[in-house]
Amino acid sequence: MGVGVVDALPPPPPIIPPIVEPVRVKTEVVEKKNLRVPIARLGFGLKGQKIPLLTNHFKVNVANLHESFHQYSVRDNGNKSTDESLDVEDDKTTDEKGGEKGPVQADNAEREYGFSPVKVMKITEYVGEVGELEQMKLFLEKLTFLELVKVSVYAITDKEKARITSDLLMLPRLSMCKLHIKFCEKAIPKLNT
Asked: pLDDT-based confidence at 63, cuts 50/70/90?
């Protein structure tokens, strides 16, 4: 605003004649699609017999893909009380029923099974490797209601049997569960996948 300059208003809008009808824009309500629908995943769940899944008990997150970890499967063993028994199998084998398997990582045991009333845990194809021993330790520390742990061990020599037995018996346990160790004569050949 300078001296002697008057602020001018912009010119008024043109007058619309009364016979002109304004154009009305129709807006359609777009129905949002539900993005969370089950989809078919080709290549997954093609082996074995299909079973109804009542609840999802596990979630696996792998932060470092370069470290080796042992992957297990958790399945219902057919008991009527499905929440009191937990079967852990090596994922590279097939179970006798041909059932589907899902992975669980033992470091998620507290989050996934910490308050679970699992009373019996059955572990097959245990060979006593360091990673397996650490994950077994985590399971035994976190499952508070365990009463019985059945472990099927594949050991060739008496020295291996003694080492695995002492390692398993020395594991700390939160509950006073019994540990049954069964030594198998011959290891089941693992499938290379």
From this structure: low
